[in-house]
Amino acid sequence: MYVNSFVWSMALAMLGATAPDDAAAIRAARLAQNAAIVANDTARIASYWTSDVTITRGLGATVQGRDAYRAMWVGDTVTYQRIPANIEVSSNWPLAFETGTWTGTVHGAKAPAIRGRYSAQWIKRDGRWLIHSEVFVALGCDGAGCAWATTFPK
């Protein structure tokens, strides 16, 4: 075990990066994307996704591709926030796994209307961490958020 962790540490040092640094970079990217969501800056929101990103939305609908996902944000009346709980960076590949909770708050409301858990796969490309896939699962709702259940995919 010690030899493997020593070899891994040396390899990362030679690359100029460490897993904690990568996890911190992913956490910072997630928080920056949250800020872009609040600002409704669709170009900045989309800049954190790969071009072939795949998303499973909270109620089960699937969206494929950055352009399709970005189009969903145009004129959206809900602000979504993702709060990372855990980020695990692979010691073998340029991949990371993030889990956490999410909320959706209707503009002007004081409390979230819908909430749940999520997971995300991040991939490092050209020295930058990008989201390759996300899965959101709605687990609770209040008021207007519960009305969205009528749009549940068949």
Fold and architecture overview:
The protein has 154 residues and is of the alpha+beta class. The protein has one domain: Nuclear Transport Factor 2, Chain: A (Roll), CATH 3.10.450. It is 33% helix and 40% strand. Mean pLDDT is 85; it is low at 1-16.
Radius of gyration: 17 Å
Shape: globular
CATH architecture: Roll
**Low-confidence runs (pLDDT<50, min 5 residues)?**
1-16
Structure summarized in a few sentences:
The chain is an alpha+beta fold and 154 residues long.
Topology, please?
Blueprint: H1 2-15, H2 19-38, H3 42-46, E1 49-56, E2 62-64, H4 66-73, E3 78-89, E4 95-106, E5 114-125, E6 128-141, H5 144-147
Parallel strand pairs: 1-6
Antiparallel strand pairs: 1-2, 3-4, 4-5, 5-6
Feature tags:
154 residues, Nuclear Transport Factor 2, Chain: A, six-stranded mixed β-sheet, 5 helices, 6 strands, 33% helix, globular, disordered N terminus
